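User: My collaborator and I are trying to settle a disagreement about how two of our proteins should look. Neither of us wants to argue from intuition anymore, so we agreed to look at predicted structures for both before our next call. Could you fold the first one, then the second, and keep them clearly separated?

Assistant: That sounds like a sensible way to settle it. I'll keep them separate. The first protein:
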Amino acid sequence: MNPATHALVGMAIGRFVRKPLLALTAGVASHALLDCLPHRDGWYPKRRLIYGSLTVAILTWALNGPNRAAKLAGAVGALLPDVENVPGHEEAPKAKKLFPSHWFRHDDHSSRHGVAAELLIVAITVAIYLKHSQRSEAG
């Protein structure tokens, strides 16, 4: 899964959990769950730029409105496991990974299914987040 998707889901979790430490923990758990879905990991230069920009935008979004600390903690927790996959670390694919969902290959999934699953996750997360935000403002 790309970092922006992980950050978005983690931020949404923080929005609902509202306690930073719990949001951080739930964000890490969400990373493992998302890694079990069909997706392709790719660190091509253009994708890095797009994913990095989207991730920064999501983290900035997390800092707006109520529950800032919990939303940011959820997003950071969801991103944290991928620190061991930072591009440029040539030994990373060969080295024993620490995070369990990184112990298996992700790039075996069809690109089409991976993109579709990821877009579906993003659409559902944004819809739930926005619907909850509207309800919170109305009530």
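The second protein, kept apart from the first:
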Amino acid sequence: MLLALAALLLLLLGFTVTSCLAAAVSENRWWLLASGLIVCVGLPALVASWIRSLRKGGQGRRRPSTVSAIAVTNALVVLGGALLAPATTADRLRRHGAWWVGSIAHLVGKKKDSPVVNGAERTFGWLAGLLPGAGDAGGPDAVAAHPDAGPPADGGGGGWQDRGAGAAPLPDSGIGGVELPGEVRVRFQRRGAAVIIPVTLHGPSGSAEVQMLFDTGASLTTLNGATLRRLGVIVSPGDPTIETHTANGTARRIITTIDGVTLGGARIDRPVTVAYCEPCAKDEVVGLLGLNVLRRFAVTLDDEAGQVVLRSRRTGHPQGELADIRPFVEIHDPRGVWRGPLLTVTARLENRAPRGVRYVKLAAVVSDGAQEGRVWGEVRDVPARGTVAVKLEGLSPVKGARFELRVERADW
């Protein structure tokens, strides 16, 4: 009886670890289920059956039972994950540990935020926190270690132009943090080819109703100094900058964040990165409304009605808020040490934003030209204008090759 209970407990843990690590390849539920069952049930059952067939008829020789084989196999899976790749295992437990509990809850008609699912998530999060190095790193997903997105090109007016950007509707992004009651229509004004729309900006000192240029070619939203001061946002020469290419040449712009943006009835309730740009403002227009705001919606222009139409998108973009956070994040002094197939990467992660960043997902991408491997990690919290130590550790199919450390996801 005790062996059966121990085997069941180890099976649950081993199944969770195996399926969570398999999520690095695919997050399809059938793949997670199949990988967990094959490794944690099918493989030990086959091995136990094979050993029994070899020892059939032997005297005084123990024949392992399927239950004991399952217990031993899953114990090795759990220990292997904890010792060989603690950071990756911790991240996967935290991110996917309760997926099977949530799946069962869904099948029986329970909500995803039910007490059982929430309790399972907290339990696996606690287990993940017990693993060595879990506080420094631990999971999958990543932008280049030294953000290599490069300065966005720009056409004119001091904003940024994305390659190939242009007509609406905008590409689907599924960014979260948006309160959107179905479809929202915002009336705009035409001034030649320019589209001017009313926007409500939110900052530490309150809100401001302004007019902005609707610009699907601008990567970042821009504001002039007077508007930033109205919102209670102070910029200084020591703040982070980004290089822009305009019709008048190259310029560097200070970047900062505001608390949110409202378009009609659509509210973005998360920080939004903006660039300080005086040339982007003219008369009552205070700046450009760029893609880092507009990509959160499915956007079309109804010229006949003189309205911008915003439609809701799904939430949960794989990169989180990385488009806004990317210019603020820098990785310093990445170093890697190989011990056979085990790669340990250390670095310092700097957040130059005026607010904290959470769940920064990192990847050390290893390549020898013929094949590529990845070691995953996650930093849970990076304080505003702070620096934290980063450690990633895991097995790579590519051994001894050079690696590139990347940031692939981040949230405010």
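Some points you might bring to the call about the second protein. DSSP finds nine helices and 20 strands in the chain. Residues 2-130 form one domain.
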